[in-house]
Amino acid sequence: MISVVTCLLTSLAYRTLIGGLRSGILRAVVYKVAAEQFFLTSLAVGCLGSSVRIHLLSAVMSVGSSPEPLPEITAAVSFLSGLLRSRLSEQQLQGFGGALRETLIEHYRHHWFPDRPAKGSGYRCIRINHKMDPIISKVAARIKMSNLLGLLPKELTLWVDPYEVSYRIGEDGSICVLYEASLPRGPLTCKSELLGCSSVPSQYLMMVGS
Fold it and tell me: Which domains does the chain have, with CATH numbers?
């Protein structure tokens, strides 16, 4: 009886773990370690077939030794770094980019929903409105740079959502797309869903496609 229950729980855990490994934001060291331990446990229990164990092992091996930034995070980092390129030294710029990348990975880790791109958009949004966004403030503290607010636009909104990264400078500025990927379901983009639109606004300017 115990073996049957163990096998059922192992199979459920397997499906959950594979799903986590496949979602980009979860591809971190902690999941690799957990997957390795699970693989060894499944061998000991003997519940999973050989083909399933091979599948799991392949998934484990595909996860790198460090978190792999999502293309959306890479686009956001490149954009904000570009705004500072003429105002910081190359060393400062690299420090800012690296700290921002790590901060965004941490901040989005449990707030990234590829099946519902608009969910958590407000949480992920970077907003400067004459005062510093908490995410940027955290980056500034990491690199010990207190003057970032004076180097960035006074009014800036950066949306970082699954499949799309876009920004707006000024309250009445156009929304410009930095990164866009095709959604797995439906033509409604996360930004049009967030704004309650049934179609893309006319002022929606494509800057970079993917």
Answer: 2-62 (no CATH), 71-206 (3.90.640.90)
